[in-house]
Amino acid sequence: MTKDNELNVLVVGSGGREHALVKSCLSSSIVKKVIAAPGNGGIAQDCPCFPITAEEIPSLVSLAQSEQIDFVIVGPEVPLSLGLVDELEKHNITAYGPKADGARLEASKTFTKEFLLKNKIPSGAAAAFDQVEPALNYLQTASLPIVIKADGLAAGKGVIIATSLSEAEEAVRSMIETRAFGDSGSQILIEECLFGEEISIHLVVSGRDFVTLPTSQDHKRIGENDTGPNTGGMGAYSPAELVGDNLLRVITETISKPSVEGIADEGIDFRGTLFIGIMVTPTGPKVLEFNTRFGDPETQVILPRLVTDPIKLMHCAATRTLSSITLEIKPEYALCVVLASQGYPNSYPKGETVTIEQNSNSNQFIFHAGTKQAEDGSIQTNRGRVFGVTALASSLEEAARDAYALTEKVSFTSKYLRSDIGAKQLKRTN
Ligand code: AMP
Ligand code: GLY
């Protein structure tokens, strides 16, 4: 077991998820020092940030060496699939996150679909194509709506739910022919559309051991009542009470366990987060996708609910001692509202100055996502999702009330938020 205040930690990434991870480092008993690369405006207020992007693998390894880092926590998927953890391991630096072979479970939807079929894990029926004509022929017999997915990483944008045949055909052409999503569309998956409610299941995995983190639900669409295009996520809450004890047992037995076992059977030494997007359909839970990292904004509601030190949990997973951990979860509810720039997920303004009212409530968190610190020290907007504000309270209703009150403390000209985060669940409880 790691002793107190022993680890120098590097957090890789620049979003709200990484700000939450940095805050967990700051309150962890096993962390001596934390740094981030590249970080964002809020992370820079909490720890030293180094201007190296998450894609610059050799520079990140050099940084870890020069800063005498003992433990690297990798936030986003791209460095994982580029083999950051493989490189760190070659230099004897412990990291949390899978190597490139494990990251394929997020980086290739056709690989994952084959894996799901092979391991008899429930998911939608699908077929893979790399040529336009066979894909168009397949569409002739498919029922609508139908889901067209680019195989590779596309920053959450490579999925089109087509409601007409012409829309589906257009999606196929745009992916394979026009490469609307670059090379990630050189292969596509045409998948049966699943109906129901989506939930996020996060597992901390270490080989054949795993721990299930609190359940959560994201809000993917940009507009109120789940309308408009998909985004990275506009808000989340935890726990997702849609998942009662029975359903969680079914998910564990039919999805989580066979996934973790199947990954180990493939010879993949997976030590990191397996985040499973699940559709709860009338015929049971089915896998929508695997991610091999924490969700954003799910992290911003999961980490505040852990009594167990999250950094200890991740370090145990990375060092194959996960079975020594018993997960303790707070009974409180957490709800996070994302503050985006008007126009996201399409074009939006950047460089607007942000004002933030101080808030010292220890159950409330203003996580920076797409912000940067200007030379004069002011905070400016820098990406589509700018903040995630989280409140922890004894009921979901109070968490929602507190989180929405907290959104008022952050101002910038193009601030956009959904006013219905958690509303579906609140309606169910009332
Ligand atoms: P993915 O990147 O595969 O998670 O897809 C992004 C989003 O598209 C998911 O979170 C769902 O909202 C939606 N989606 C993906 N696959 C399906 C499907 N087979 N049926 C319905 N919606 C889907
Ligand atoms: N919030 C969904 C994701 O991180 O992919």
Please describe the topology of this protein.
Elements: E1 7-13, H1 16-26, E2 31-38, H2 43-46, H3 57-66, E3 71-74, H4 77-81, H5 84-90, E4 94-96, H6 100-107, H7 109-118, E5 126-129, H8 132-141, E6 146-150, E7 159-162, H9 165-176, E8 188-192, E9 197-206, E10 209-212, E11 217-218, E12 221-223, E13 227-230, E14 235-238, H10 245-265, E15 271-281, E16 284-291, H11 299-302, H12 310-318, E17 333-341, E18 353-356, E19 364-368, E20 371-373, E21 379-381, E22 385-393, H13 396-407, E23 410-411, E24 415-416, H14 423-429
Parallel strand pairs: 1-2, 1-3, 3-4
Antiparallel strand pairs: 5-8, 6-7, 6-8, 9-10, 9-15, 11-14, 12-13, 14-17, 15-16, 17-22, 17-24, 18-21, 18-23, 19-22, 20-21
Helix pairs in contact: 8-9
